[in-house]
Design brief:
alpha/beta; about 35% helix; Rossmann fold
Length: about 290
């Protein structure tokens, strides 16, 4: 695994002014954003990287794992500058792989299959390079949104990856859930990806990718923060509560936060959530 190239993203002034309004001044003006191309399983895959313009001491690193599938849910330059810039302005380095098959990357998004390797390979590319000695790789956290929650749990399960802290927002934890037709949507998507698989094979994939079934394989030393909207129309809050209950029963260090009127994207609460996440991550990484 290695970085092929990375280029700085420079947005137009109108876009920067919009980011100042939607996030804050520091997100737009005090951070740098890069689009990175790297090798993952011999595929050329892309991801974002964001840091503060002025670096003081070593930076903890946050993996920001997106939701959606393929191009649906991929982050564009504008949102990357705002989302990752906000975190970078708070003295974090942000790594945000976009997975194979998105943003012009090679390969096919497998929704929790070999694409999970795109996360760990992104991380290893930065660790192996001599250019990023200002990143403290011993202080690593994950923020996983929706499908990104599934990817976070699979990363820890499949690659023995042990971050200090993991925040899961609207996370997909049970592909078999009957709530909000999740089981129907999961089967339909996986059947599209694995067209030659029979129903039994598809159900095995769903079992293997549902974190509710492999909690005991997750690192106990990691601290977990599950966040969900009570009105989430895509992934039910009851799935998140089930995950939380099972983690408590196993004595994981875990916290749960519900936004009473929050939808799947927590649109009404994004600024509030940004500050909650930063405060929590600072308490765990610094």
């Amino acid at each position: 695994m290695k970085i092929i190239n990375y280029k700085k993203i420079n947005l137009e002034e109108n876009s920067l002014k919009l980011i100042e309004t939607a996030w804050n001044y520091a997100s737009a003006r005090s951070t740098d954003l890069f689009l990175v191309e790297y090798f993952s399983d011999d595929l050329k895959v892309k991801g974002y990287y964001s840091i503060p313009k002025e670096i003081h001491g070593k930076l903890p690193v946050i993996f920001w794992l997106r939701g959606g599938y393929g191009e649906n849910g991929a982050i564009n330059n504008f949102n990357a500058k705002g989302i990752f810039g906000f975190l970078a302005s708070r003295n974090f380095a942000v790594l945000a792989p976009q997975y194979r098959g998105a943003l012009g990357s090679e390969g096919v998004d497998e929704f929790g299959g070999r694409d999970v390797a795109d996360i760990i390979n992104f991380y290893e590319c930065f660790k192996a390079s001599g250019e990023f000695d200002y990143i403290d790789f011993e202080k690593t956290a994950i923020i996983g949104w929706s499908r990104g929650g599934m990817m976070a749990f699979l990363l820890m399960k499949n690659f023995d990856f042990v971050p200090k802290a993991v925040a899961i927002v609207g996370g997909l934890t049970n592909l078999f859930s009957i709530e909000n037709d999740r089981i129907v949507a999961s089967k339909k998507l996986l059947k599209k990806i694995y067209a030659n698989y029979n129903d039994s094979q598809i159900e095995n994939l769903m079992l293997e990718r549902s974190a509710i079934n492999f909690i005991d394989k997750l690192p106990h030393s990691t601290e977990y923060f599950l966040i969900h909207g009570a009105k989430d129309e895509r992934i039910s809050i009851f799935d998140a509560l089930e995950m939380y209950r099972n983690m408590l029963e196993r004595n994981f260090s875990s916290r749960f936060l519900c936004f009473e009127n929050g939808d799947h994207f927590l649109k009404k609460f994004r600024k509030e959530l940004d500050f909650i996440l930063v405060d929590w991550l600072n308490s765990k990484l610094n």
